[in-house]
Structures are given as C-alpha cells and as structure tokens.
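Hi V.,

You were right to ask for the full record rather than a summary. Here it is.
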Amino acid sequence: MKKIYNKEKNFDVLILGSDFNAYYMARCYHELYNQKVDVISKKAIGVVSYSKIVNFKEVPNFEEHKKFVETLNEYAKKSDKEKIILIGTSDELVRLIIENKEKLNKKYIHNYPSLEILNQILVKDTFYQNFENCEFEIPKTYIYPCRVNELLDEEKIEKLMYPLIVKPGNNIEYHNHKFEGMYKVFKVFSKKELQEVIEKIEKSGYKSNLIIQEFIPGDDCALFDSVFYCSKNKKVQLMTFAQIGLQERNPGGIGNCTLLVNGFSEHGYDKKIVEPLKNFMERIGYQGFAEFDLKYDYRDGKYKVLEINPRQARSSYYLSAGGHNLIQYLVDDLIYNKEKECILLKEKILLSFVPKNVVKKYVTSEPLKKQALDLIKKGKMINPLKYKKDKSIKRNLYLIMKDINYKKKYKKFKW
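Predicted structure:
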C-alpha cells in the first residue's frame, strides 16, 4: 500500500471505541501515515491500552448523549485541523454519531447513512419486516413483542419448526439490560426452552421485539462475510465475500468471527453471489461501510442474509491486508472527492485471531481448512492485532495470553 503521508494535511481522524475494530482502524491509519491516531472510548481494554500507535483518552459515560457531544465538541475546539473524520466502531457509537450530527462541531465529517436507513437495518425486527421480499434471501422469521402477558402465536411458531434461533430485535437496548445467562443469540429446541428464554429476557427489562427464526443447519463454516464501502455519493466502491471458519466460543461472543478466508467458498465462488447485495445497497442509498452476515443453506443451495451491520466489522481488516486500506477509502472519498470504480476483492487472504493449532483442530470444513493451512504456508495469514510496528513487553504478553486463552476456550466450548 503506497502511503499518502503528508505532514501538512489539514484534516485528522478520530476513532471512537476500544475493541478489536478500533485497534485495526488505528492500525490502518498508522500504516497509511506512520502516525499515532487519537482514540476516545468509555473504557480502555488491553488491545488499545497497551498500544503505542494510539493516543487514548478514557471518558466515563462517553456513550451518554450529553457527554458524547460535550467530549467531541471540546476535542474539536482544541484541534487545529479544518476537518476531522469521525469513525465509530460499534453499533452504539455509530448511532450516537448519526443522532447527534447537528449538535457536533462543523469540523466533523463522516460517511454514515441517514437515521431512517440506520433504523431499517440496525433494528433487526424492522429489517426482517422491511426486506422480506427484496434482492436477497432471509431466514423464515417470526417477530415477538416483549410485553407482559403477550401470547406466542403457536401456529406461526410451528411453521418454523425446532430448533429455533432467538435474538433481540434491538441490540443496543438488549445490552443495556444485563442478566445471568445472557447470550448474543439463543438456540432453543422446544416450546418450554423458548418460553424460558423469553421470560428471562422480559424480566431483564428489555421491551423491544425478539426475533424468533428458523435455524439454518450448519456450524461456523456455513457462515459468510460480505463487506461493502459505499461512497458519500451512494455508489459501491469496494465489496468482498469470505467464508468464515470459526467464531468466538464464549457465550457473549457468538456471532463474532475469529477466522475467515476472503475470495473463497467451498460451494463455488462467483461474483453473482454479491451482485444482489450491491444492488440492494445502491437502491436504498446507503453510505459508508457495511457488513452482511450470511449463512449457506444446503437445503436449497442459497445464501441467507442474517443481518447487516452499519459499519466495518471487527474482522474487516482483511480489506486493508488485500491492498484496500479502510482509512484511505474514507480519506479519498470525504477529503479528496475521488470517484472509484467498483472492485470485488477476490484475492485469497486468511484473517485469523486464533493460532494455527486452533485452525487445524477446530475448523470442520476440510476444503476450508486445506485452503487456510495453504495460505498460512504461503505467509498469507494476517492477525489484525499483531502489528510489527506496535510491540512492547506488555503488549506481547497480552497477545501471548490471548492465544493461550483461545486454545482453552475452543477446548471448553464445543458446538
């Protein structure tokens, strides 16, 4: 990747968050400009707190609207730059940016969709209802309103057939009501289990809808990832398609990818898979990064869209590893107004947060495992957290312990 480092640049980048997503976006910035980047979050975690490529500021209660606006406006007043590109690394932070757009200092620029489009995509029950008959396939779904004494529609449930997937329609509200036995996604095998899960969620204080959905057979290797960058002019400039091999194994991390191979599908790799997704993004007038979570249904040979995240995902660094730096896309678009032809990134790249022995032992698809191990042999494996220009004793120990913990987690949690 050719650097466009310029000491005299009249803009800067501010990253919000402190997770894997925030770290690799900081890495993208450092790879591009060879400079530290400012990062603000409510709390530091190891991945950024031990990093030498970020200037981190911890702000308690940062995700409360008033504190969010005050903090960012104070930051902008102290900045000598004409423009500041604002990057959110979670659903909550993206929503805060969009909802407070008019209250933020005019120096701030970003590329996110309208609040209307955000709600159509991010609020899952709205998503499934609005896009049931659009360009792509979705699983059969029943929307349950979380209210006291609300009765399940037994007829609709029976049509879905057990096992079923249960997940919140509103992730942000859901995570604001913690409870024992909380999972990102529940899998239930009977009416009794379904009722127990609903009761547990309702007692937590969650009042939005629940998504009750058919379970598409298959483990982690049936999952796929497709990332898009749509310009401020609402045109797709970059898209990918990758097969996932592993997800996080702790209950709260289900749905977070730990290994994928871009440019590969054991069911055949074809541009036609992503064309309907591209058409959808441009039809609704989407802007910025977005990630589609899909699952291959061997029963009918179709890829079903499970959800769309209105941002880059925590595993999206593979775009930068393939020569398409995520920060550069934002800078070229928002600062330099560059129009770009749409590119499908076909290069085979292995992104993995887990060590090689976990890949060998726990990836169940033989074609995918063979492809992954071949890429490791060719030196085409990338771990977004392991950056040669960001080393220290504390950070190295943190990453070693992370590898050890991954081995323990995959041994303990098997599904």
